[in-house]
Amino acid sequence: MSRAMRRAVPLYAVAILCGCTKEARELGPATPQTPPIGNEDPRIPTYQDNFYQVSQGGRYFAWYGCSGCHAEGKDAVLNLADSEWRHGFGFANVYGAIAARHGRLAYGKRIPVEQMWQITAYARDLSSHYPEKRRRVALDQQAEPVGGTWHGPQ
Amino acid sequence: MRRGAALAAFLPLAACGGIQSPLSPVGDQAVALHSLLMLSIMICGIVYALVIGGLGWSLRRRRAEPPPDTDARALDHSLWIAAGVILAGLIALTVGSFIADRALFAARGRDALAVRVTGHQYWWRIEYRDPASGRWIETANELHLPQGRTARVALGSADVIHSFWVPNVAGKIDMVPGRRNLVDLTPRRLGWFRGQCSEYCGAQHAHMALDVKVDPPAVFDAWLTAQAQPAAAARDAVAAHGAAVFAGACAACHAVRGSGAGGRAGPDLTHFASRHSIAAGTLSMTRGNLQGWIAQPQAIKPGTMMPAVALAPADADAVARYLVTLR
Amino acid sequence: MTPDDALRTRLDEAWRDPPGLWGFLTTVDHKRIAARYIVTALLLMFLAGVLALDMRWQLSVPDNDHMGPQLYDESFSLHGSTMLFLVSVPLMEAMAFWLVPLMLGARNMAFPRLGAFSYWLYLGGVLTLWIGHAMDITPDLGWFEYPPLSGPTYSPGHRADIWAQMITFTEVAALCASVNIVATILKMRPPGMTLARMPVFLWAMLIASIMTSLSMPAIMLVTSMLISDRLVSTHFFSPAGGGDVILFQHLFWFFGHPEVYIIFIPATGFVSSIVEAFSRRPLFGHNVIVLSILSIGALAFGLWVHHMFAVGLPRLGNDFYTAASMAIALPAGLQIFCWIATMWSGRPRLDTPMLWMIAFVATFVIGGLSGVMTASAALDLQLTDTYFVVAHLHYVLIGGALFPLFGAFCYWYPKATGRLMSERWGKVALTGIVGGFNLGFFPMHLLGLMGMPRRVYTYPASMGWEPLNQVATAGSAIAVAGGLVFVANALISYWRGAPSGADPWGGSSLEWATESPPPPWNIAYAPVVHGLTPMWNGSRPLPVMDGLADDHRQVLITSVTDAAPLYRQTSASPSIWPLVAGLAVSAMFIASIFTPWAVPVGTLLIGITLTGWFWPRRPRAKQGPLGTGG
């Protein structure tokens, strides 16, 4: 019995130490962010590899009106799920495309930096979902506001 | 008279009431439930006293010799009496419950003020139907009700299950995605009350409160008319500058009718400064609190969906000064 | 009746476990398995209690910053899930595992290896949840995770899936345990113990186990549907996709309401045994109590909507469930009357187990009465989702299940260990636990009536809730301190307690006929029963039936109603297969959190282990009731 216990302890320790940062969820004020410096910025995995940050990006994606144009079934650049990226797939490329390449919409000036990180992570994550998953999430979010429009509760 | 005496026994309980309590009922619905509560406490109190009395008597009756047979018959009779007492109590409570339930729905069929409340994480979108024009007048986080009139509130949710509860006026009803629930509110007394979301809806469920004001009908009508008006243009330079900053940094989510800001993702701020509190009952309405909230909402309500917008101190000050002009 | 040394040696040979670690892993001795369950569950009760104290500290002052919302939400979710799925039901099952064969004078349970398997699965559930917590992927959506909050959109990641699979583990374990208990009680009773002569405790465990079998499938179904929504994007709980959010609530509570009676009914069994023994007279109203247990068991399945009164369901339905929820108070109330009547007409001895029963009556009745208040659909609209219902549920669960459990622990501890617990420290512990609990939880009724909702990590200072919250915190701390004294008493008495002998309390049922602690083979000869209280019938030595083999594992199978001996059955020997099968099932359940392919692959693996488990080891019988006639 004690031999089994002694063998289990290091396993338990390893489990605790490696943790699971994909599931981390820190609520509260974050340190002020700056835009990503290149595609290898070490801060990128904190957003791109984290379920909570990506899902927050998904909600702001609707609220800032992105899903008005970038929806399922649209073609060319409007379909973000097809893995074809005109300005490059790197994190900083996509961030820059959102911030500076939407003309009048001027997202870089209107959306706070942390939310820009979250939306970038979400946009890059879209192509890794099955269409069923995207549709399922879209159904749940049907009653959420999209930019300046809201169609009523579910 | 008898009810008065019975109620007097519950005075200490009444002292526990407040602005968010079923013990201080001001609405027809809450009054019916309060009566049922008092009946229940009375019946349950009597039953408990009987049980503890029986238990205490049994333990004091310790004897060395086995009991004579007559006790067995007495016990058998007592069993039937106990069953009768329990049944009588349950029937009284069930009948009382049915009567109270009818009171909750007594206003159906009467003409009522139409209100729509939609639950969001973590705020309330409130819309009043203007009887004249048929349009919906939108506000947020503060519900005004006319005294003596029934408001029929249609409840819905934009995301997860919330629950609408203003205990002084009525019981709670859940706001379920995919369902449209109705609750009648018929307040009889004036004043400020407080409601709170009562179905766990996420990280800031604790800070999703609702201010409720009951006004005389004339005051209510005036309030509603004012809410329907667009916001007045900013008069002084600082406020005007604040409006400009607002249009860039805040208008994506917030609407201020009359100024061009038309975002629907967050609460409508057209008459923000006329409200009692900020962030769904989290902070009281002062300029200092407002500046703290805008500067770092995550410090006050961690997990709220409002992002921390980075503004220069002068701009932040201007936005706050602009918002307090929105009466 | 007393076995001679040669018989003892042969029985020891036949029934002993292999030594050391191998014996630990392969044992099918119901007493060792029950002990494992109890130790694990008590450890978890301690952990859940620590979580509760942490939450109480957070709530003791308004706007407290001891815990942020994420940590608080994880705490109440973990506390509720642990106490309801990993402590309460398993502890009741464990007491049944330990006591049922002893009270039946049987050598082991009907399916020994299934018992071992159920423990390994239970342990899998425990590790799933708590290692998840250690890795900071704690589920944070409450102990019943309603969608859409628990759906793929609003709960990203795997936290909700860990909760759902923990439930799958524990429900399979509970189903295995209940099948085992039902089969043992119905088919392995001693000769002469007709259903009419069966003690109330066995009726309680029988009914609770049948209820488990009928209600657990609902929750396995609904958590699997939730995982399916999250993993493979089905639309069960998506209103816009044609699903229904309320479906989750119906299916969950169809299980959830019987679950609380599954926890309470075994407690009524404990109370019946202890009140009978310490009142020194047969239980008054035996038939009434048994019929009450049966009717509670049946009625419990018709009440679940009372957890959904605020959802806005049709009024006629709410009226029906109000009446049904009120009705179940009648059998419960009659049981309380019968126990008090037993004390009244008996010669009560106020030792610690009896004091726990008195605490039970005084506390549980408060919970039952607050339950009758919440049974009204109308009044529930003010009470549900507030601290009133938190007070109610703790009064019925702690007062109605844990107090009898503590009393049962004190009562049967001498049988299990051969030593008596200290009476003095037992009374100290009881005072701390009972007094602390009432001090801690009674104010919550008032807090709910003052408008404080549930599951809030903090509250504003202006609401006036602080004083009662502080009293609640103080009471909870006292209760936990009492709990620590209780555990210390149990541990110290194990080594330093006075020797108890076979029957320290003068009990009425058969477990007191054998030694303390019982040998692996429980009792040397199958007792023959002529009444409800075989140890009090006056006949000494007890009449017994001889004829069971003593050179290999053999048990006696009797008929369902009359307990007439039917045949002798070989009982399973220690085996590694339950552990291996448990590992295969655990692997499948955990992997299916991450990929749907785990289901077909895992099923194949489980099939292989089950084939090993059930591989025939002896030829089939050729004659007798089990004969194939070939």
Overview of the structural elements:
By secondary structure, chain A is mainly alpha-helical. Chain A has a domain at 49-68 and 78-144. Chain A contains eight helices and no strands. The radius of gyration of chain A is 19 Å and the shape is globular. Chain B folds into three domains: 17-104, no CATH class; 113-217, Sandwich (Immunoglobulin-like), CATH 2.60.40.420; 237-323, Immunoglobulin-like (Sandwich). In chain B, strand 6 and strand 7 (173-175) form a beta hairpin. In chain B, the strands form five sheets. Chain B has a five-stranded mixed beta sheet with strand order 3-2-1-5-8. Chain B has a three-stranded mixed beta sheet with strand order 4-10-9. A two-stranded antiparallel ribbon of chain B has the order 6-7. Chain B starts with a helix and ends with a helix. In chain B, 50% of the residues are buried. Chain B has helices spanning 2-9, 11-14, 28-60, 70-104, 217-228, 237-249, 287-295, 297-300, 313-323; strands at residues 113-120, 123-129, 136-140, 142-146, 151-157, 162-164, 173-175, 181-185, 191-196, 209-215, 255-256, 261-262, 277-278, 283-284. By secondary structure, chain C is mostly helical. Chain C has one domain (5-16, 28-574): Cytochrome c oxidase-like, subunit I domain (Cytochrome C Oxidase, Chain A, Up-down Bundle). Chain C has helices spanning 5-15, 20-26, 30-59, 69-104, 112-134, 159-187, 200-232, 245-279, 286-299, 315-327, 329-345, 352-375, 377-383, 387-417, 423-449, 466-496, 577-591, 598-614; strands at residues 526-527, 544-545, 554-558, 565-570. In chain C, the strands form two sheets. Chain C has a two-stranded antiparallel ribbon with strand order 1-2. In chain C, strands 3-4 form a two-stranded antiparallel ribbon. The longest helix of chain C is centred in the N-terminal third of the chain and has 36 residues, at 69-104. Chain C is globular. The two termini of chain C are 39 Å apart. The model of chain C has no long low-confidence stretch (mean pLDDT 95). At the B-C interface, helix 3 and helix 4 of B face helix 4, helix 10, helix 11, helix 12 and helix 13 of C.
